[in-house]
Write a structure and sequence with these properties.
Blueprint (H helix, E strand, L loop, with lengths): L2 H11 L7 H38 L15 H11 L10 H17 L5 E3 L2 E2 L6 H22 L3 H32 L4 H6 L4 E2 L2 E2 L10 H14 L11 H4 L9 H26 L14 H21 L7 H28 L9 H28 L26
Antiparallel strand pairs: 1-2, 3-4
Helix pairs in contact: 1-2, 2-3, 2-10, 2-11, 3-10, 4-5, 4-10, 5-6, 6-8, 6-12, 8-10, 8-12, 8-13, 10-11, 12-13
């Protein structure tokens, strides 16, 4: 039974007449929507704090440590400061598009929660086109950024708006195609069914470790790289390249309108990781998740936060790529690979197999995915070697700046 049916039946048992069941259902959805939206805003504060602490540790800094324990209230103080800022609209801006853009940037991110499978039976709406619904919402966020850049009447914001079309639409293609690989494997777009298909039974016990990432590692890698670009995360944060575009498509925004873009960015990074968990990392599946109530929710949130931490680790480690490198990687590497992967998967899944060889298509799919992983990693390895990308520990100065410690060798030697 779904969570909405449980809450409606509870209201019926409390004395609500049967002819008003529709009203009970409306109240249930309204209350839950308000609660989920409020929790999402609170989640954004936690995500910002995690980003600051993780990146600061990578850069040998402490991060927020003044306001509250471990600096937890620093993000709250920043939110209150942004609420007090003056809301400025440029004189020559397109007023309607300028005002709608921040709202449209947050709207699709929050609507993603409707099909997220948090636990067994705990999904907002178990749509039979849930994956297609997620794809459609991604396009709304792209239009919001384009509207912000176009309506601001600023050349830098406009240039960043053009980059929105170039980057986000380009990387949306491999990301969407990678999302289809589990769909082709299971034969459904329902996120609840995709989660249940990732179970692993040993006798009567479900270990919940039949994750698709073990069978589709190539598709999972392509999705993760594309999700980094869709979430505007390093090394694909070219929409906000400060040295080129000042601040990006939201340069003319201030106050809470400015904050809404960053709210959407942080939540989008987290929910793209949550989608990866649903499609490739078992969703709520885990040992005894279907026997112990609430354990599936803990598994799902733990996996989602681990993926978010991986995104922030990449953000604090790798340098930003050039726009030509980013576009070439999307169209010359990711798109051909994922197209070949899907074509091969469709062919082998339809090949007639004897009764004893039903495992052969899965082995062929796994081999193809491993080949994709090896090729992508070789491309990235050649790029890092060619660009001379090194870690921050690769260079240790012989003398300390600001001291009188002599250099071990004369300059020029």
């Amino acid at each position: 039974m779904n969570w909405s049916d449980v809450l409606v039946d509870m209201q019926m048992r409390l004395g609500a007449p049967e002819e008003l069941r529709w009203l009970a259902l409306t109240i249930t959805y309204a209350v839950v929507a308000i609660v989920v939206a409020t929790l999402s805003l609170t989640l954004a504060l936690v995500l910002i704090w995690i980003t600051r602490k993780v990146v600061s540790r990578i850069q040998d800094r402490i991060g927020p440590n003044r306001q509250g324990p471990y600096g937890l209230f620093q993000t709250v103080a920043d939110a209150l400061k942004l609420m007090s800022k003056e809301d400025i609209t440029p004189a020559n801006a397109d007023k309607i598009a300028y005002a709608l853009a921040p709202v449209l940037s947050v709207f699709p991110v929050l609507m993603t929660l409707a099909v997220v499978t948090f636990a067994p039976g705990f999904v907002g709406a178990d749509l039979n086109i849930s994956v297609l619904y997620l794809v459609a919402l991604g396009s709304v966020g792209i239009m919001a950024a384009l509207m912000a850049g176009w309506s601001s009447n600023n050349k830098y914001a406009l240039l960043s708006g053009f980059r929105v079309v170039a980057q986000l639409l380009s990387y949306e293609i491999p990301m969407v195609l990678a999302m289809l690989t589990p769909v082709l494997l299971v034969g459904t777009m329902r996120t609840q069914e995709l989660a249940r298909a990732q179970s692993l039974y040993i006798g009567p016990v479900n270990l919940g470790l039949g994750w698709f990432v073990f069978l589709l590692p190539g598709a999972a890698l392509i999705y993760f790289i594309s999700a980094l670009a869709e979430a505007e995360q390093t090394p694909f944060d070219l929409l906000e390249a400060e040295s080129e575009l000042v601040a990006g498509f939201h340069i003319e925004y201030s106050g809470m309108r400015f904050a809404m873009f960053f709210l959407a960015q942080f939540l989008n990074a987290f929910f793209l990781g949550a989608i990866a968990v649903m499609l490739f990392f078992g969703s709520w599946q885990g040992p005894f998740a279907d026997q112990i109530p609430g354990l599936g929710f803990i598994y799902f949130m733990a996996k989602s936060f681990l993926v978010y931490l991986a995104i922030q680790w990449i953000r604090g480690t790798f340098p930003r790529v050039r726009i030509d490198q980013m576009m070439a990687f999307a169209w010359k590497v990711l798109v051909p690979l994922v197209l070949a992967l899907i074509l091969l998967q469709m062919i082998v899944m339809k090949l007639p197999m004897p009764a004893w060889g039903q495992w052969i298509p899965y082995v062929l799919v796994l081999v193809a995915n491993l080949a994709v992983v090896a090729y992508v990693l070789s491309i990235l390895g050649r790029y890092f070697k060619g660009e001379g990308v090194t870690t921050k520990r690769a260079f240790e100065p012989k003398s300390l700046i600001g001291t009188t410690v002599p250099v071990s060798r004369p300059m020029g030697h």
